[in-house]
Design brief:
2 strands; single chain; 139 residues; mainly alpha; two-stranded antiparallel sheet
C-alpha cells in the first residue's frame, strides 16, 4: 500500500513540475512580447534602461528598469484593489515612501539597491495608486 501512495505521489509531482514548466514558458513568452519586443514601451515609457537595473529574459534585456517594470505591472493590477480604496491610501503612502527612499538612498550612494526591491517598491506603489486616487477624490 505504501508503494502505491509513493508512486501516486511521484506522478502528481511530475505532473506539477510539467505544469510549472509550461507556465514558466508561457510567462517567458509574455514577458518577451510585453517588455522586450514592445516598440511602444521602448518609445513612450521614459526610463534610463540601465542594464544592471533591468530584468533579462532568455538573455534579452527589458526595455524598462526593474522599478518601472513594477510600476507597469502594478497599474493594471490596481483595478483589482478598487473595492478597498479607503484602506489602500495608507498602504500607498508606505510604498511611495519606500520607493522614494530606495531611489534616493541609491542616488546619493548610501547603499546599493537590488532589482527585487526596485520591482517590489514600484509594484506596491502602482498597485495602490488608482484606489488611492479615487479615495482622495471622494469616489
Amino acid at each position: 500500500m505504501h508503494r502505491i501512495h509513493t508512486e501516486i505521489g511521484v506522478y502528481i509531482t511530475l505532473a506539477a513540475i510539467n505544469h510549472m514548466s509550461l507556465l514558466h514558458h508561457l510567462f517567458q513568452k509574455i514577458a518577451i512580447w510585453l517588455f522586450v519586443d514592445s516598440v511602444w514601451l521602448h518609445k513612450y515609457w521614459g526610463c534610463h534602461r540601465l542594464s544592471d537595473r533591468s530584468f533579462f529574459v532568455r538573455g534579452r534585456q527589458f526595455h524598462i528598469c526593474a522599478r518601472c517594470t513594477g510600476l507597469f505591472v502594478g497599474l493594471p493590477c490596481s483595478l483589482l484593489l478598487l473595492p478597498w480604496r479607503e484602506e489602500s491610501a495608507y498602504v500607498f503612502g508606505v510604498f511611495a515612501f519606500l520607493l522614494v527612499a530606495d531611489g534616493l538612498t541609491q542616488f546619493i550612494r548610501w547603499r546599493v539597491s537590488n532589482n527585487r526591491l526596485r520591482f517590489f517598491t514600484g509594484f506596491g506603489t502602482a498597485v495602490t495608486f488608482f484606489p488611492t486616487l479615487l479615495s482622495i477624490g471622494g469616489f
